[in-house]
Input
Amino acid sequence: MREKKGYYEVLGVSKNASAEEIKRAYRKLAVKFHPDKNPGDHKAEEHFKEVGEAYDVLMDPEKRAAYDRYGHAAFQQGGGGFARGGVHDPFDIFREVFGGEGGGGIFEQFFGGGRGDATGRQRGADLRYDMRISLEEAAIGCEKEIEIRKLDACDSCSGTGAQTGSKEIVCPMCHGRGQVVATRGFFQVAQTCPTCQGTGRIIEKPCRSCGGEGRLEKTSRIKLKIPAGIEDGSRLRSSGGGEAGIRGSSPGDLYVVIHIQEHRMFQRDGSDLYCEIPLAFTTAVLGGEVRVPTLKNTAALKIPAGTQNGTLFRIRNEGMPILHGPGHGNLHVKVQVEVPTNLNSEQRKKLEEFAELCGEHNTPIHRSFYEKLKDLFTA
Output
């Protein structure tokens, strides 16, 4: 049997640590090793119990004094030790450290809202649904209806879990406390009663359809509004759209994660859109006007004479709508100048004449390049 670690060592604090230092150390380790964050990890579960045990002793002045004087032996005789004052519930420590009893502390925010609702019954589970939409749907907003299999209220008992005329009675397993005690050596942990699910009461005559849970798996349809301008990865919440709670308790929520499909023409960056269009060689040289595709239709773009390949133009207010705000982003258009190929004899002749008129190095880019080249060899 391995030697039991010292409580100060478990929490990583000195023997002179203040109560606040102990509390901070416990908070960090308890979150790290909590079973909800480490499902199936038995080592993490053991660490979680160790830090809970150490915290419970070191935060009690009398227990800490006894531990400082006698070590672990202080709690090994006659069933004494940290379990002496009653049943130890590790969740009580979390409530003390993370914000108290009412469900509004960091504990509830971090681990998903506590273990039950105002009725004391188990709240329904939250669900996730991944939805794919097009860029056009994201631009204009839309309404979608999704179909999911989930636990919903039983029709036979209207979610109560009881047969008509049946009543609730005190749970014989926990005698109304809603918790049972599991003992491992001298370490006791209060756990939710498996018979009444923590409510302290059971149904005298459970519903035959749902077995007293008040819920059954069904196919449900839920309508969801997608706001215009929504971004990829956004999460929408349908309040009460998750699984039904046990015997009429609060339902969970449904979280819908939006995935926007890649578009053949446009790339998105926030509220701005980007696209590339081909540009005729002659239009690039002489200038002109071209029609550019947008999500709605097309827009006119003026091309100045002498436009170079890769030039980026901006068309205002032709991007995505700004989510929860006025206006739209911009559309950025990159031009790809098409160099003519497979010229016939007449076209070639005209271009050769054009080249002679321009001169081989008479363009601004050529002049700049050859001046740099000349400087390089004369330096």
In short: The chain has a mean pLDDT of 81. DSSP finds ten helices and 15 strands in the chain. The first strand starts at residue 127 and ends at 133.
